[in-house]
Structure formats: structure tokens, C-alpha cells
Amino acid sequence: MVGTVWLVALFSLFSAAYSAKYECQGVAQYGLTFYGMWSNMTHPNAFPFTPKIGRFSPLVGASLRSDPLWMSGMPASQGVKNVAETGNSAVLEQEIMQRIMSAKTAWKQIKSGNMTISGTESVMNIEVEVTKDFPYVSLVTMLAPSPDWFTGIMKVSLCNASSGMWMDSWTIDDIQPWDAGTDDGATFDAANTATTPPGYITQITRNAPPTNFMYLAASAIPTLGKMMFVRQNKPTMNQCSGMYYYTVKFEAKWSQATHPNGFPSGAHFSPLVIATHSYKYKMWSDMTRASPGVKEVAEIGAEGTLYSEVMMMKKPGFVSNVYKTGAVSTPGGYTSTKIMVQNMYSMVSLITMIAPSPDWFVGVDSYDLCGMNGWKETVTMDLLPWDAGTENGLTYSLDNAATMPVDVIMRITPNSNSEIGAHANITFATVTFTRGEMITATTTARTTTTVRATTTVRATTTERTTTTDSSARGLSADLFAILSVSLLAIFGVLY
Ligand SMILES: [Ca+2]
Ligand SMILES: [Ca+2]
């Protein structure tokens, strides 16, 4: 019986490892270098000298959720038309700003500066920022002078979806010319003749539409440049060996005295969800959208959906264990939980709702208990408030309109005009991680059957949406711990 369970568990883990597509987590910064490779040497008969020598307009683009700035077979936006025809990016920048601020379909603008780029120039370290929700990059630059010809990147993702990791570097070395479909001219120096009605964006080949590129000696158009993205914020990885218990103690500090503005009756923290994991997993993070589970914790303090989400990621390379506690009253309440860390699973994340509130929470995002000198002894953190970006509302109240379109998770700062704002930099709770005993192979079997996953003290309030059965919860958490230890041991051998 037990053997069958093992085989099924192993099989599902293996099939997941071979078929899964992963989101990349958090925020990644890149330096983009653009190498111009457009000259009379590389493109004989397809490089202009009159009325001006060939060059690129400033490179403009954005990190995006899904829809690119321009697409083959679609009409050019006014902004892309202007860049392709004149190199002026003012309207395109307005379009990008609109997508960032109101539609929330773009994250950050990308721009190489205000200078045109000669055909063989390199522009280094153009800032690019992508996030879990906005992993794509789209770019455009005019081939100048020309009627409406441009080049760039339609859409590229900087996330490696098979590993769930941001690319360390990514080079695009075939950059082809495109026609915006807005001007009929067939030569670099043609007079302006608008295409009426406007056509669609099409790739320029040696055969069509009629352009100077027809007279190239080569049979295919050589690349006009190269774009190289290099990650700037690559995480530094510490290596700690062995398996340890840590005690996580969460202490509620939020009170009428610490945060007098609108301190609500029944103030408490919802049941905590705590996960131990590798650098490849994130429960939540600054500047990214809340998962449905995080949204539910932040809005109503219900931990079930998040717990399931973390369980889904409980697989080799991602999550090691997940724990939950009861609710914690404030001020003065606390809860204490024993967690287990090992090897690459050295990080801990947790979250709990500031309750009642619209979508405010405190938590820890991927704190690494492995330091440069091994497993850390004791760490205490002051927890400050965050807004999940999913519900409006400026007071400690539960029922507010949804934030549409949804926003990203952000720290609540003293600039906020909400009730919480004035005291947003005062600790709501503290969490202390204290290293316990090392877990050895012989103690594993004994301790995992006796250690209770959670011990909640003085939690006098419970969430309205949650019925809790602490005995069942303790048992299942213990079972998970055993499964996890054994599976990791097996995988440790296999890999
Ligand atoms: Ca054209
Ligand atoms: Ca909010």
C-alpha cells in the first residue's frame, strides 16, 4: 500500500519535471547592448548616403504582459508609424505610458537615450526591467532615412519557461527590416507618399515590398544588428549543507498605541502560511501581482487557496515544505512553528493578513536562512505593511471594490493617504527565526512523527471564512514532512 503511494508520487513528480512550464518569479534587471551592423560593407546597395547617411533612431520599447508594441500583419499604431517614418518617439512613449499607468499591460519603458545611433555604433547598458507579470520585451527603431522602414524586436521573453529561471543572458542576432505599411516610398530617399488606406506591418525581404534591399548582393538580408541582454541582479547563492529545524516565532505588535489611526475592533492576524523553498519559488514579492492564494489571504484572511498553491509547487527544485498556523490576536498574541530547511531549500516565506483591512498584509519574501558562514543562528525581522494591489479601500474595512485593472504588490509607505499610512513605518509584528537541532537520518523517522507542525498560543480570534481542525492539520503536515524528507533523499541520489 505504502509502496504504491510512493510510486504514484514519484511518477507524478517525474512527469511534472518533463512537461511543466514555469513562470519566472520576482523582478529581473538587464543591461541591453545594441550593436548596429548596418553599413555599405554589410549591406552593399542597401545602405543610404543621401539625403543623410544611414542610422538608427533612438531605440524605444517596453517590458510587456503579452501584446507587443507592433506585430506582423497588423496595422502600426500611431506611435510606431511616427517612429518608422520620422524616428520621433514622442507618441509611442505616450502609448507606452498609457499602457503602464491605466491599462497596466506594460511595466517599464526602455529607451537608448535621445541620440540617433550610427549604422555600426554600439549602445551599452540600456536599462531593461522585466517581472513575473511582464516578462516580454518589444522594441522599435527607425532605419533612417527611409519611407517607413524600421527594425527591432516584436516580442521576446527573458524567462526560460522550462526551468522557471530568468535568462542569465540572451542574444538576438538576426534583426531584419520591416515596413510599417504607412508610406509607399520604395527608396531610402523617396518623398513622403502616404499609403492610403494604411496597410499592415510586413517584413521586408529581398523580393517584397520593393525597397533598396532588392539590390543586395546576398541572397538573404544580413542582420542589421545584434541585441544582447545581460542580467544585472543575478542572485548570489550560498551553499549550506545538512538539514536543520528552525523555530519561527511570530509576535503581534499592532495596537491602538502603535497605530492609533482607526485601530479596528477585533484586530488580528489571519492564519499564517509558511513555506520553505529554493530560490526558484516565490510566494509573493514586491512589484509583482498577487497570486489568487495571496489575494485571498490579503483580502479575507483565508489560507486554503494559498496552501494548495504552495502544495502544487512542492516538487524537486521548488518548495520543500508548507506549514500553517492559527490566527493570532493583537496586541500580544504570538504563534510558534517548527520548520525544516535543507541544502538548496534554505529560504523561508510567509504571509498573514492585517485583519480587518482591504488587502493589507505582512510577510517575509524569500529570506535565506543560509548565510555566507553557514546556517544562521537567530534572526529577528520587523514586519511592515504591504498592499496586495487587488482591493481598493483606505480604512481597516473588509468590503471594498476590486482594484481594476489589478495592481502589483507594493509596500504601504507614509505617503499613503490611508488610515495605515501615517504609521506605515512602525512595526506591525516581528518574526524570529531560531536555529534548532540538526536533523540526522536516524532522528528523522522519530522526530517527524512527534513534532507538531504548529503550536498556537493565545490566538483568541479565528477567521470567519476558515474552520480549523488542528489535529488533522498537524497530522497532514507531519506526513508531508516525512514524504518530503524521503523524496528529497531519493532525488538526491538520482540527480
Ligand atoms: Ca511602406
Ligand atoms: Ca489595496
Automatic annotation (TrEMBL):
Q: Which PROSITE patterns match?
A: SPONDIN
Any Pfam family: Spond_N
Renumbered to this chain, the signal peptide range is 1-19
Q: What InterPro entries does the record point to?
A: Spondin/Thrombospondin_T1, Spondin_N, Spondin_N_sf
Question: Per the record's keyword annotation, is tRNA processing included, yes or no?
Answer: no
The residues covered by the Spondin domain are: 18-213, 234-420
**Looking at the record's lineage, which domain of life comes first?**
Eukaryota
Q: Which UniProt keywords apply?
A: Signal
- Report what the protein is called: Spondin domain-containing protein
